[in-house]
Design brief:
alpha/beta, TIM Barrel
Amino acid sequence: MYPDSRSRRLRRTEALRRQVAETRLHPASFVLPRFVVPGRGVAKPIGSMPGQSQLSVDELLPVVKEAASAGVGGVMLFGIPETKDESGSAAWDPTGPVPEAIRAIKAQVEDMVVWADVCLCEYTSHGHCGVLDGETVDNDRTLPLLARASQVYADAGADVIAPSDMMDGRVAAIRDELDEGGHAELAICAYSAKYASAYYGPFREAAESAPAFGDRRTHQMDPPNVREALVEVSLDLAEGADMVMVKPAGPYLDVISAVRSRVDVPVVAYQVSGEYSMIEAAAANGWVDGERVMMESLTAIARAGAGVTLTYFATRAARSLAGV
């Protein structure tokens, strides 16, 4: 009882606070998302994501090397092809930007875990996550195409295949394709609880993946639902997923916590483009301390139960942890 018990004693100095912290961030737990385009010498700024750009492979490599030098554990690759069609066939082109980037990174950046996002939205002319039947995404016809793209990324040297499409059955289809293609050792991180979120707005510009009509609410999760997320996670694990993801992160901390309490596999969270852009915009206007909000938001995600966090702040946050 007060005055003998004083909780403030362990908050007195920075060193004390650091020593008794219950949640600790580490650069190795960060994964840096990057957008890869064809060509050379391309570094096209993304207007709605200050400090982020679409990059050709030669421009991507220094960015990945910088991240690695800061201790960042991984990079997630999204591809924007030269041409698009109804089926998204550029997604499984072995000479496309993502396979080329994977090969270059694995050749030049030691110990960087390379994640390959698997979805067709960046590759289809209509911007939807699979092939269409009229104006509806045809779930079952899409599965072999996702599996085919996964095999190409695996052949290029990816360490983690990360399907983000939210088609039913896609983890099993990809697992079967990888196993039959000689990649039984390759990990799958399923975007298991990917919500139909308004926070993805800037990503649509970055990946040039806005749907030509309609939206993605028929297959991405409905924001009010938590129990449904646990069902999705269970299904993906039963199909062979090695890790599960919750996306977005900040607005869905309760979902991250619920998933963490139910599973023993690594739980991944994606601090998405809208989260990043809002922090950057508020900081640019002097409304918040951008560095502190960046670190506080990442701490909250880890505190909720995420062991790995995809974040556009990865390199900056890693350097902040190192005091650089």
